[in-house]
Design a protein that fits this description.
- The chain is an alpha/beta fold.
- The chain folds into three domains: 3-116, Methylthiotransferase, N-terminal domain (Rossmann fold); 127-366, pyruvate-formate lyase- activating enzyme (Alpha-Beta Horseshoe), CATH 3.80.30; 372-423, OB fold (Dihydrolipoamide Acetyltransferase, E2P).
- It has helices spanning 12-27, 51-66, 77-80, 101-109, 157-161, 169-181, 205-213, 228-231, 235-242, 260-266, 272-285, 304-317, 343-366, and strands at 3-8, 31-32, 41-46, 70-75, 91-93, 114-116, 139-143, 145-146, 165-166, 186-190, 220-223, 250-252, 290-297, 321-326, 372-380, 386-390, 395-398, 406-414, 419-423.
- Helix 7 (205-213) packs parallel to helix 9 (235-242) and helix 12 packs parallel to helix 13.
- The longest helix has 24 residues, at 343-366.
- The protein is globular and about 60 Å long.
């Protein structure tokens, strides 16, 4: 039996896409290998959101090919920069062609090479209509749509994922019910922008959350990233949906810059004030909110004053976590054509913001010391011990607890990135 190993990189969407491909391969009679070493084929499900990520993808594909493995490349890189894909690969599938993965292996076995990288205009598939491989675990990712309604001047992901296609709420709910019936305890709703879910089919994220939390059972829902310009349109309704105990008090709301002029150049379609309004209302009505945001430093045209505005915003808002990215131009984007800031300046600003974010995160986490929180056990932790997630998705490390179990934890120590505690049996 020919064995295939699927490697997923990037967002949770890719993880779901990987499980779809695994299910299709199994149905076609192929075996799945747990490691690339034990496989004849390796599917590299790529991410290409940043230049360093793309370089890692190229290196990984080359490493596998040099070791004698046959490689099929899927994911966003196939759309964003196909020239970066090693010509020795045995197949190339775009994000809208993952349903052809078994066909790609069939053709490769016959000495051919399937290249199918149709854009979202040429081909559209509803991935909730495709099979998924059920694995043991606590977390199940449910894609709620693909594509977005934005046109950010720096983003190449939209070249791959296209314009928003929301999946039918009844299909989303069906997958959630099936996952819960199979023993999963945490549902992660994933999309390029969950905030605009349903805008193309006459519904919205808040209504979907209400349908999901109405399902019987003790489970948790984590909502993926949402952009401010869409979240603000349904703000009151969204906050009401977050009041359910089944929804983690976790808000991933990327601001990208604390300067309105930079936001305009980025094509973000909201202001700093609107971002702060969303945060203010969420914090006022959802106690214990865990606010995550994203910031890009070194965007073309970011002056010293603009960067200081971002620093001041961070000091005012004090997010629990900030994902700091150094701007890097992506092929085909508008911003790639503009005058770029020197690398040393971007690195300098990144380090300053990184130091600030770690200090703020530590100060916030220190407030949990001595408190007791309820947490859902995920399993063995990468940092040692057992990893669990608190009511607001804070990462908690404990010494005991079984995967899928809800436990009470007394927090005894903290770091900038996680809490450490003792289980109260």
């Amino acid at each position: 039996m020919v064995r295939v190993h699927v490697e997923n990189y990037g967002c949770t969407r890719n993880r779901a896409d990987g499980e779809i491909m695994e299910a299709i391969l199994v149905r076609a009679g192929y075996g799945l290998a747990e490691t690339p070493e034990s496989a004849e084929y390796v599917v590299v499900n790529t991410c290409a959101v940043k230049d360093p990520t793309e370089k890692h993808m190229r290196e990984r594909v080359r490493e596998l090919l040099d070791s004698g493995k046959r490689v099929i490349v899927t994911g966003c890189l196939t759309h964003i920069n196909p020239e970066a894909i090693d010509p020795r690969v045995s197949g190339v599938l775009g994000v809208k062609s993952i349903d052809r993965i078994a066909e790609a292996v069939d053709i490769a076995e016959g000495g051919g090479k399937l290249v199918s990288v149709e854009g979202w205009r040429e081909r559209s598939i509803d991935k909730l209509e495709l099979p998924r491989l059920w694995k043991s675990g606590v977390v199940f990712v449910v894609p709620i749509g693909e594509g977005c309604l934005n046109a950010c001047t720096y983003c190449a992901t939209r070249f791959a994922r296209g314009v928003l296609k929301s999946y039918k709420p009844e299909l989303v709910v069906k997958w959630v019910r099936e996952a819960l019936a199979r023993g999963y305890r945490e549902i992660q709703l994933s999309s390029e922008d969950t905030g605009c879910y349903g805008f193309d089919i006459g519904t919205n994220l808040a209504k979907l959350l209400n349908e999901i939390t109405a399902i019987e059972g003790d489970f948790r829902v984590r909502v993926g990233m949402m952009n401010p310009n869409h979240a603000i349109k349904i703000l009151d309704e969204l906050i009401d949906a977050y009041r359910s105990e089944k929804v983690y008090r976790f808000l991933h709301l990327p601001v990208q810059s604390g300067d309105d002029e930079v936001l305009r150049r980025m094509g973000r379609n909201y202001t700093v004030g609107e971002f702060e309004e969303i945060v203010r209302e969420f914090r006022r009505k959802i106690p214990g909110l865990n606010l995550n945001t994203d910031v890009i430093v070194g965007f073309p045209g970011e002056t010293e004053e603009a960067f200081e505005n971002t620093v001041e915003l961070v000091r005012r808002v004090r997010p629990d976590k900030i994902n700091v990215s150094r701007y890097s131009p992506r092929p085909g984007t508008i911003a790639a054509k503009w005058k770029q800031l020197p690398g040393w300046k971007i690195k300098e600003r990144s380090r300053e913001l990184h130091r600030l974010r770690l200090r703020i995160a530590y100060e916030i986490n220190s407030g949990y010391t001595g408190k007791t929180v309820e947490a859902l056990v995920h399993g063995e932790g990468k940092k040692g011990g057992v990893e669990a997630r608190a009511f607001n998705y804070k990462d908690v490390i404990v010494e005991g607890g079984n995967a899928g179990e809800l436990i009470d934890v007394k927090i005894e120590r903290v770091t900038s990135t996680y809490l450490l505690g003792r289980v109260l049996w």
